[in-house]
Amino acid sequence: MPAPTSHRAVHRTEIDAPADRVYALIRDAAEWPRHFTPTVHVERAELDARSERLRIWATANGEVKHWTSHRALDPEGQSVRFRQEVCSPPVAAMSGEWVLRDLPGGRCELTLHHTFAAVDDRPEDVEWITTATDRNSRTELANIKALAEAAGSDAELLFSFEDSETVHAPAEAVYAFLAEAGKWPDRLPHVSRLDLTEPSDGVQVMTMVTRANDGSEHTTESVRVCFPDELRIVYKQIGTPPLMTLHTGEWSIRDTGDGLLVTSQHTIRINESAIPEILGADATAADARARVRAAVGGNSAATLALAKRFAEAPHAA
């Protein structure tokens, strides 16, 4: 049977920043969920000083896809080659390269190459992959350009925090409470509605409506990746409230020897342009961080407390 036809795509942008700064963004794949709009989660395993394996979950044409890639790193040549070892249909093969070229004045050019093939060469699948590759490549290049050109400008806007609860119960019971998000409207007072789909094993896509203390409601859309063997769930909001441009997080369960430490971790970037309209003309980034910390942390603390009550109840034993 003949091999599927190979197709190629090239995307390019010029960036007003030095190439080494841009290379660092491409190199640090673990941070891609914070940097690249389509990327939900990355699991990274270093193979040696020059190569690594990445497990990537990302959105493509509105769908959540998962694949495994091998990357060859060349910092001297300012390039990173990649090849998917495990593809997600309709992709049969995907490889490519990030290539940087210095330009005068401390600027650089970034080119992203793709070579791909579709399962069984179906024309509709070739079109799907072409569209997804074009859309995600343009978005990623724009994300990198904005980050590199504004390096350090979001120091006041990007922040992380966590809340924890100690639980004396089986870890499986706690994990079940966190993983069974479809039951949250019946279990969590601040969740008024939640629509959940599971497009593939371990992946959840959810639209959640939460109720604030003042009675207002906010809708968020998230993709969650569940790791039951590791007792953790990672997620990224693909639809954030107006005061945020980024929200990633993780639920984790760790046995301390004196109970389970159940932790909710968040990384958030404030939407600076929305601060005056939402908080007032004199409000600052610090005010926005405090507002978001209280709201998001309050919901997390409430969820952790109810997870503790659920898991420690006699019926959960």
UniProtKB/TrEMBL annotation:
<dbReference type="InterPro" id="IPR023393">
    <property type="entry name" value="START-like_dom_sf"/>
</dbReference>
<protein>
    <submittedName>
        <fullName>Polyketide cyclase</fullName>
    </submittedName>
</protein>
<dbReference type="Pfam" id="PF10604">
    <property type="entry name" value="Polyketide_cyc2"/>
</dbReference>
<dbReference type="InterPro" id="IPR019587">
    <property type="entry name" value="Polyketide_cyclase/dehydratase"/>
</dbReference>
